[in-house]
Amino acid sequence: MVRLMIRTAGAVLVVAGAAGLGTFFSSRFLLRLRLLEDLRKLVFLLKGEILYGNSSLEEAFARAGGRLDGRLGRLAERTGRCRRGPCSSIWNSWSWP
Fold this sequence. Notes:
The model has no long low-confidence stretch (mean pLDDT 83). The protein has one domain (2-94). Helix content is 80%, strand content 0%. The longest helix is centred in the first third of the chain and has 50 residues, at 2-51. Helix 1 (2-51) packs across helix 2 (57-67), helix 1 packs parallel to helix 3 (70-81) and helix 2 (57-67) runs antiparallel to helix 3. The protein starts with a helix and ends with a helix. It is an all-alpha fold.
């Protein structure tokens, strides 16, 4: 009888753990999907600003970042704003705290 209860408790713990891991990984996947969608929006906004607005890369980043919400929008806006400061190149801007 005790053995059956231990097996049942073990089975319940395995199922609960699998459900928890599934929920955790699905939430990480959804966050990654949203970030990729925002990145695609940023690329389309940059393309429009450069091709149709005849903007420089700095202006295009600043304007596209102003139109986009979230972390990626703030990062793009910051990339466009800094011309010759602590982030004089795009690479330094993306690693700027």
